[in-house]
Task: structure prediction
Amino acid sequence: MTDARPFHFKHFSLYHHRSTMKVGTDAILLGRWTEVKPTDVVLDIGTGCGLLPLMLSQKGVAQVDAVDIDKASVEEASVNFESSQWREHLKAYCADIVDFQPNKKYDLIVSNPPFFSRFSKCDSERKSRARHTDMTLSREALCQAVCRLMNPNGRFVVVLPYSESLDFLEVAENNGLFLHKRMTIIPIEGKAPNRVNLELVYRKTEAIQEEIFTIRNENNHFTPQYNAFLKDFYLGL
Result:
């Protein structure tokens, strides 16, 4: 167990110092945005410290399996799961999702994936493996894994850089996954979007549900939209 202090939310706390993927705004917004059902059996691809499974458990899903290729991340996620009130419904696996062979299909698959394919590599090899598509998980491999593991009526929810999202959607469609919902995320009011949350399903829909979300205003303070959106999770809101 690390000596570092945990990150505290309203209904759970978690360590994230050993994981390749720390607690961050991308995952927090994705977890809050994802719609769930009480019967959902969920898979989190690239779980890092296990933040998304904990957020989705708070929202009321039935079960979450969390997969990560990094051993230290899985160990830390397992500690976080065991210390939570949903410990009986959470399980972390150290595996490459390409080789992951569960005995079930999933109603909901979520991922904050490695997506910095056109950026410089991190100094740390572990962080590079977690963040770069050309070292571990390509767009094609991710979509193929989702199609192999998701129920016919399932949903796949993912966060991506805005600049990468159109290429990703093309790959997804080639694998039979179609856009159903999209949240375009603007970091600071007046700036260009930098992230996008996507929900994909197996069937094309006539009307895609679209929304725009702004994190900070021009004075760099969190917007009322942001505070209202995360009031069930953040302390002090």
